[in-house]
Write a structure and sequence with these properties.
The chain has one domain (7-252): NAD(P)-binding Rossmann-like Domain (Rossmann fold). Helix content is 52%, strand content 14%. It has 9 helices and 7 strands. Strands 3-2-1-4-5-6-7 form a 7-stranded parallel sheet, sandwiched between helices.
Length: 260
């Protein structure tokens, strides 16, 4: 087991990539506390992964856009874990529409969750690492669209671009100060959020998107699977095998985006 007795917090762990990450972390022997905003899914995930073992997971509700809720969640997590080795910050949201239609409320919602949620959770984790002398790992989630752009998703792309800038900056600052490493994962994975985007996006954009999948993804000609393709990189970035990797972007997308 690669993560035996590792103490890990996962945000956005009730569905999609987050749930797949919690599942594999527990399978690899980690002690996990995870959060989300859907208690039914959270408890179902908790029950399912604990039945599998050999690690253990505990669910708490938390809206990461609220610093107060984040701080409360981390305090509860420390009561359970007694320490922290890894933060896997997966939680995020989309709001897709034409660029000219974004309102101040839309923009605030995206930035509150995607950027400030990243800031709040990262700060909370770093304070624990620093207080305990732990050379921890922070894994943030951005998006390929932060690099390539996205029709009908300009503000989402902007919020994820901000996550990349934040992550690379703290990788330098906290790496120098405390040997804490920070990396980003840019996934192109079929998730419930992606399926919802397909259902709600402009039909012309959807048609163009589907037609381009086979040309865009050299591996498989389609988007990847959360459990098969994304969760394993989360295990690697949480393990000691990644201790000298810092400030990097891992594009889990079959070669659709090649970072230079």
């Amino acid at each position: 087991m690669q993560l035996e007795n590792k103490k890990i917090i996962v945000t956005g762990g009730t569905k999609g990539i987050g749930a797949a990450t919690v599942k594999l972390y527990v399978k690899e022997g980690a002690q996990v506390v995870f959060c989300g905003t859907n208690d039914e899914r959270g408890k179902a995930t908790e029950e399912a992964v604990n039945a599998m073992g050999p690690g253990h997971a505990t669910y708490y509700r938390c809206n990461i856009a609220s610093k107060e809720e984040v701080d409360t969640f981390f305090a509860k997590a420390m009561d359970v874990l007694g320490g922290l080795d890894v933060l896997a910050h997966v939680a995020g949201v989309e709001a897709n529409m034409a660029a000219e239609d974004y309102t101040a409320e839309n923009c605030k919602f995206l930035m509150d969750v995607n950027l400030y949620g990243t800031v709040y959770t990262n700060q909370a984790a770093y304070k624990i690492f620093k207080a305990n002398g732990v050379e921890g790992s922070i894994i943030n989630y951005a998006s390929d669209v932060a690099l390539s752009g996205m029709p009908n998703g300009a503000m989402y792309a902007a919020s994820k671009g901000a996550v990349l800038g934040w992550s690379r900056s703290i990788a330098m600052e906290w790496g120098i100060e405390s040997n804490v490493r920070t990396n980003c994962v840019n996934p192109t994975i079929k998730t419930a959020m992606y399926e919802e985007w397909l259902r709600t996006v402009d039909p012309a954009v959807k048609e163009m998107h589907l037609a381009g999948l086979k040309r865009r993804y050299p591996i498989d000609g389609m988007m990847g699977d959360a459990e098969r393709d994304c969760a394993p990189i989360m295990v690697f970035l949480a393990s000691e095998g990644s201790r000298y990797i810092n400030g990097q972007i891992f594009c889990v997308n079959g070669g659709a985006t090649m970072v230079r």
